[in-house]
Amino acid sequence: MQIVETRFIIAVSLIYLVGIIGFMVPEMSPLFTKLTPWNLILSFGVAWLFHKKWEISHVLGIIAIGILGFFVELLGIKTGVIFGSYYYGSTLGTKWQGVPFLIGLNWASMIFYSSSILAGRLKNSFVKSLVGATMMTTYDFFLEPVAVRFDFWHWNSTQIPLQNYIAWFICSFLFFMLLNGISKPIRNRMAASMFWIQMGFFVILYILLRLF
Fold first, then answer.
1. Which of 44, 82, 91, 50 is nearest to 63 (CA)?
2. What is the pLDDT of residues 169-185, one digit of tens each?
3. Distances, alpha carbon 155 to alpha carbons 88, 110, 149, in Å
4. How far is 151 from 87, CA to CA, in rounded Å?
5. CA-to-CA distance for 120 and 115, rounded, in angstroms?
6. pTM more than 0.90
7. Where are the domains of the chain?
């Protein structure tokens, strides 16, 4: 099973590597941005495919985070008081009230991935949530310029507001506290790898966009 899992991790890494090329080549970029929703769904599905110990409280916790994440974003774009003033583009697909349904999946998946890294490593829920929120905010730092460039979302200001990163940290911290409070996150090698693969994807694109 571990050999199969390793092969999947390598395959997913190669897919994301191809994605970097696709996003950076102007002729290919429109196709790859259209594939983004399917990639997010597939990545989430593959991570669960290799989940070894299913617990209803853990699954319900991830679902709850996805739902809460969606409505936090809805409140965010309607008021501008959480992350700042922004709006969603077309890359993330079908929307309701201006918010893509996939943004809830994105919150759920990233908390799932990062909590899988921390599972069994830190015992104190508060400390674990602080570390997890730091990981999530670091991820968002590299994600933001890429997201704006490829029509994930757009800011009404010329610069990404500091408020956004503060809100990301707070929301991530609360989501981690919620998950740790109702379940015991389980280590999942595939989910943990998915976090680092996606982080690497956005770090490389972040650097390339600055260079070119």
1. 44
2. 999 999 999 999 998 87
3. 9, 22, 11
4. 10
5. 10
6. yes
7. 2-211
